[in-house]
Design goal:
The chain has 203 residues and is α+β, with helices and mostly antiparallel strands. Among the domains are: 55 residues; 77 residues, no CATH class. It is built from three helices and ten strands, in the order βααβββββββαββ. Strands 5, 6, 7, 8, 9 and 10 form a six-stranded mixed beta sheet that branches. Strands 1-2-3-4 form a four-stranded antiparallel beta sheet. α1 packs antiparallel against α2. 23% of the residues are buried.
Length: 203
C-alpha cells in the first residue's frame, strides 16, 4: 500500500477538538433494506407453497420450484445481513475519541465480528481503503472497505462502500471517514485494486 503520513506531527500529538458528530446510515437506505427483506421473505414462502403443490402433480416440477425457493431464500439471507449492518451501525466523533458501534453484518465480503469500542484518536495509527472484487450468487461485485489500524497492531474492519463502478455505487461513508482521518491527523492510505476474491476474502 502507498502510505502518506504527516511527518510534521509527533506520535503523541492530539487532534484538534471538534464538535461532537453522530453518524448513522440514513433512514431511507435502512427502510429500503427492511422492505426488501420482508418482500423476499414473502416470495420465499409463496415459492415453498408452490413447490409443495407442484410435488403433488409432478416431482420434477416440485424440485424446480423448490430450487427456486432455495435461491430466493439465499438472497433473503444476503439482504438480511445487509439490513443488520445498516441498522446497527453507529459512529460518534468526540473531541478526543471515536466511538464505534459496528454490527456483524457490515460487510458482504468479510465476516467481521460485532464490535463496540471507544478509541482515543492518539491510539489510531492509520486508516486504509482498497478495492476488492468478489463473486456471489452468480454476480461479480466491487467493494471498497475501510480498515482502522490501532498503534498496538489491532486491525478493525469499519465498513465498506458497495457496488463500486455501477449505477448503484454507494458513498455513505466517504465523509465520515474523511472527518475521522482529519481528527486523527492521518491521510487515508489507498491500497491497490485486488483481483476476484471469495466472499470470505480477508482484509
Amino acid at each position: 500500500m502507498n502510505a502518506i503520513s504527516d511527518s510534521s506531527l509527533g506520535a503523541g500529538t492530539r487532534a484538534p477538538a471538534g464538535p461532537r458528530r453522530l453518524f448513522r446510515v440514513p433512514l431511507a437506505p435502512r427502510l429500503l433494506s427492511l422492505f426488501a427483506v420482508i418482500f423476499l421473505l414473502g416470495i420465499t414462502g409463496i415459492m415453498i407453497g408452490f413447490a409443495v403443490l407442484a410435488f403433488t402433480m409432478q416431482w420434477a416440477l416440485g424440485l424446480f420450484m423448490l430450487a427456486c425457493a432455495g435461491f430466493i431464500g439465499a438472497l433473503t439471507g444476503y439482504v438480511g445481513r445487509d439490513l443488520r449492518g445498516k441498522w446497527g451501525l453507529r459512529v460518534v466523533l468526540d473531541s478526543d475519541a471515536v466511538t464505534l458501534d459496528l454490527p456483524a453484518g457490515r460487510s458482504l465480503i468479510h465476516r467481521p465480528p460485532a464490535q463496540h469500542l471507544t478509541i482515543p484518536y492518539t491510539d489510531i495509527e492509520a486508516i486504509d481503503a482498497r478495492f476488492e472484487a468478489y463473486g456471489t450468487l452468480g454476480m461479480e461485485m466491487m467493494q471498497r472497505p475501510y480498515v482502522l489500524h490501532r498503534k498496538a497492531g489491532e486491525l478493525i474492519f469499519l465498513f465498506e462502500e458497495r457496488a463500486m463502478g455501477t449505477a448503484l455505487e454507494s458513498s455513505l461513508f466517504t465523509n465520515i471517514v474523511a472527518e475521522l482521518a482529519m481528527r486523527v491527523r492521518v491521510t487515508l492510505r489507498e491500497g491497490r485494486r485486488s483481483g476476484l476474491q471469495s466472499r470470505r476474502a480477508t482484509a
